[in-house]
Amino acid sequence: xxxxxxxxxxxxxxxxxxxxxxxxxxxxxxxxxxxxxxxxxxxxxxxxxxxxxxxxxxxxxxxxxxxxxxxxxxxxxxxxxxxxxxxxxxxxxxxxxxxxxxxxxxxxxxxxxxxxxxxxxxxxxxxxxxxxxxxxxxxxxxxxxxxxxxxxxxxxxxxxxxxxxxxxxxxxxxxxxxxxxxxxxxxxxxxxxxxxxxxxxxxxxxxxxxxxxxxxxxxxxxxxxxxxxxxxxxxxxxxxxxxxxxxxxxxxxxxxxxxxxxxxxxxxxxxxxxxxxxxxxxxxxxxxxxxxxxxxxxxxxxxxxxxxxxxxxxxxxxxxxxxxxxxxxxxxxxxxxxxxxxxxxxxxxxxxxxxxxxxxxxxxxxxxxxxxxxxxxxxxxxxxxxxxxxxxxxxxxxxxxxxxxxxxxxxxxxxxxxxxxxxxxxxxxxxxxxxxxxxxxxxxxxxxxxxxxxxxxxxxxxxxxxxxxxxxxxxxxxxxxxxxxxxxxxxxxxxxxxxxxxxxxxxxxxxxxxxxxxxxxxxxxxxxxxxxxxxxxxxxxxxxxxxxxxxxxxxxxxxxxxxxxxxxxxxxxxxxxxxxxxxxxxxxxxxxxxxxxxxxxxxxxxxxxxxxxxxxxxxxxxxxxxxxxxxxxxxxxxxxxxxxxxxx
Length: 648
Fold this sequence. Notes:
The chain crosses the membrane at residues 71-95, 220-240, 464-486, 568-586, 617-638. By secondary structure, this protein is of the alpha+beta class.
């Protein structure tokens, strides 16, 4: 093997599964000679499989690349990727938050403080919720909520503004430096970027004015981006403060007939009414309400497929799965007993099934004059007078939705507008219109454990819309600043210049430029106002530039990336194929997915660190072996804990 050969383009040799040696041949010849060299290497493959010199050169190249690699830059990029991933995860959580809150917080008090027993009717994107705290948590005192709010304004608002300004102006100075090597900028632009170090109202205005009228940058997009970022940084504390806040915890109440506020948690949706309940050891007009556990503090309504139903996981598990209203011969008494003991509010579980089965056999309103049996009690004629208001069709185990009254030939219990509630299992009933028009959310109090006095509690959180906008703006800012940094840094590297006219050097450069352009006026003898007037009128803002660059070309981010991919096309193609195959095998429980993804990850880091094919091949081999060792160790630990079958 020729030790002086360049980067190999014959990566097709990787199809051999006998050895990695073909990958260790470094040859970067032109594309025109690729076919001939590939044939020659295939012919000499047998003699090169165990070429110790090739392996030694590959090891030396890999070690040297590891030593020369800029790990600070790598850690910075890992931090950047982690930051972007974190923002993406937060944005995903925020997008899913409405469904999470709807499923977990069973309360008629909606996020904006309004009352509605239909939680799925709230519009999270309504303009009315822009300045309202619609995502809040906690049960805190006023002092604690205020402390968190002030700390947020200081740390996130002011601290975030300082951090954004420092990062943005550092990158802006890099980019403007590369632009000044080709075309000049005004004195105000130079002062704002290199000497101010952070945006102000006037400096932002000067940037907008100079970019639009006088000397600007080479890229219009960069000028617009710089102005937008400056405005974003100026408004950042205001945006951070506006999106957060605290509010009193509220509870749902219904205004009673006498004006008294009744807790909505004491209301239950009625399924049946046993009007002559005294015949079966109950009270007259006994309401049989829908099942509700202690977890479901308020019985809300769901609204799908043109029907209303109790929006409770417990009601659905009871009625939807036939766990409560079963025929007597299929009833699991032990299970029902356990559920009734665990959820005392549903002590009427057997009553639901008995009423449903009774009405299915004898009908409603006690229209039949015959003896009957109810819950093992024999009743003389007539049958029980049982009625209902509204029975959801989805609960097939609750009979009555499709029952037809023989007197009117109508289905009286299928009209969803007749939903009715009862308060504290009493005889008073409240229809749906009354509940919706008299429901309200008011601050609730708790007893202070120290002085036994009642006090309001507070929760702290965000405006959903503003939080979404803030995360989106931060993601866009991150991506834009990253692209600008890569473009300016690679341009400096291409031109061989890294020094920036900041600080004292910037002062000297600006002074020299002013003296040069105002030689006739002797600027040292002018007052501040006179000097400003001269610069404004005579020089039209002035012009300052750096020493001309050898090439005015700017580094192209996409062009550079595409060039790197073309240069290492066999490596990138192989890596893409491995990643795609691994993604397709993600559900395969044979360990193949992990093997492929370990190799894919090893190749990725090898392409980032290595500068030649033989170095990349050796780094890939080391990474793959290290990954397999870590995987085997992890699987052994899981196997000892009895969890191996879950992952293999």
